Amino acid sequence: MNPSNYKILVTGGTGYIGSHTSVKLLQEGFSIVLIDNLSNSSINVLNRIKELTNINFDFIEGDIRDKRLLRRIFKEHKFDAVIHFAGLKAVKESEEKPLNYFENNISGSIVLLNEMDRANVNCLVFSSSATVYGEPSETKCSEDSQLCPKNIYGQTKLIIEEILTSLKKIQPKWKIVNLRYFNPIGAHPSGLIGEDPNGEPNNLMPYISQVAIGKRDKLFIFGDDYNTTDGSGKRDYIHIQDLADGHIATLKKLLQGSPLKININLGTGKSYSVFEVINAFEKASSKTIPFEIISRREGDVGEIYADITYANDNLDWSPKFDINDMCKDAWRWQSKNPNGYNE
Ligand SMILES: NC(=O)c1ccc[n+]([C@@H]2O[C@H](COP(=O)([O-])OP(=O)(O)OC[C@H]3O[C@@H](n4cnc5c(N)ncnc54)[C@H](O)[C@@H]3O)[C@@H](O)[C@H]2O)c1
Question: What pTM did the predictor assign?
Answer without folding.
Answer: 0.98
